[in-house]
Specification:
This protein is of the alpha+beta class and 98 residues long. It has three helices and two strands.
Length: 98
């Protein structure tokens, strides 16, 4: 299976997780669920970009996710090692602003 299809499966899991989160949190105040759902939305945006058959540079992905979530979330990137392949990659971290 191609790599972008594996990433698309990750995207599907994030979407399903987002929907489950909405259902579970609808009885709570907005500020409670906004942080959780926003981070998941940032991950969905990132995985959507990674689905492209032509790879996008890490900083481009970070900039897209950061722009999409700028008003409520902080986005930063670190260098990580993929345990499966042993290759370095840029990991995006999304956290709610204080």
């Amino acid at each position: 299976m191609s790599r972008y299809m594996e990433t698309a499966k990750d995207l599907r899991r994030e979407v399903e997780s987002l929907l489950s989160s909405i259902e579970a949190l609808t009885d709570k105040p907005r500020d409670t669920w906004e942080g959780i759902l926003g981070v998941k939305l940032g991950h969905i945006v990132n995985l959507s970009i990674r689905c492209s058959p032509r790879g996008v540079q890490g900083t481009v992905r970070k900039n897209i996710v950061e722009e999409a979530t700028r008003s409520v979330y902080n986005v930063h990137m670190t260098k990580e090692v993929d345990e499966r392949t042993g290759r370095d990659y840029n990991k995006i971290h999304i956290t709610a602003k204080d």
